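Entry type: protein chain
Record version: 2
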Amino acid sequence: MTSGLKHPRAVVVAILAMASPAIACTAEDTPMPSQTPAVRTVAAVDDIYGLWSIRDGDTVCRIALSALKAGVGHQASVERCAVPSLREGSIWRPVVGGFELLGPGDRVLARFRKTGLDTFESMDGRLRGERAVEF
């Protein structure tokens, strides 16, 4: 007696069609990408600490972000800084998607978001940061 299923693919389709509904996955069970919650994690210290060159147009500020803990974050050292809004930076901390540079009283001087492998941009787009080759 022949089953009428001569092609191996037809056999697989027939088996899958008989599978229990308990193991079947329907479209209703799978969330659409827009329904899937975005993973928002705090940036890793290891991805950020180091020497940075922050630009505001032609104006440059050199910042050393340390991995050493200090206050509410980590030590920051601002050197040769021609960007007035960053001169008082002394602490930095990682935040979701980037980092913040803090000044006296833990006041946020600037918040940066990651834009590339070794590039950051302030939330208003005015300041752009990249790893400094040398200080």
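Comment: The chain has a mean pLDDT of 82.
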